[in-house]
Fold this protein.
Amino acid sequence: MAAKLIFVNLPVADLARSIAFYEAIGATRNPMFSDDTAACMVLSDTIHVMILTHDKFRQFTPKAIADARSVSEVLLCISAESRAEVDALAEAAVRAGGRADVGPVQDHGFLYGRSFEDPDGHVWEPMWMDMAAAAETMGGQPAGAAA
């Protein structure tokens, strides 16, 4: 089975500011799916963030656009290769105009996570997990392990 792609669509107030923010945390802009109303920011081969101006976003939903600074809309958890990468992402977010640790830092030994908001208040949670230690701690087997 082929890997599935995910396109996370987020409304943004200032497209240029958001492009700069996502580039600063390691995303690359895919010009094929970008214009003056939207940008496709590639986080990995399978994860793409579509940042859309409010006018563009409204073309896809009749619902009001949530103010992510005052209400929870979604928490976007993304894996990291190490604890250091989790910290680096949170620090890069702050340097790029975001806000780090909007939720409590999670440190359970086998799992380490932080959070940050992008300039529009969308919450991202970079997380590192030692799957073998997690399985041992939680009494199961790592995903993909033979039974």
Observations:
- The mean pLDDT is 92.
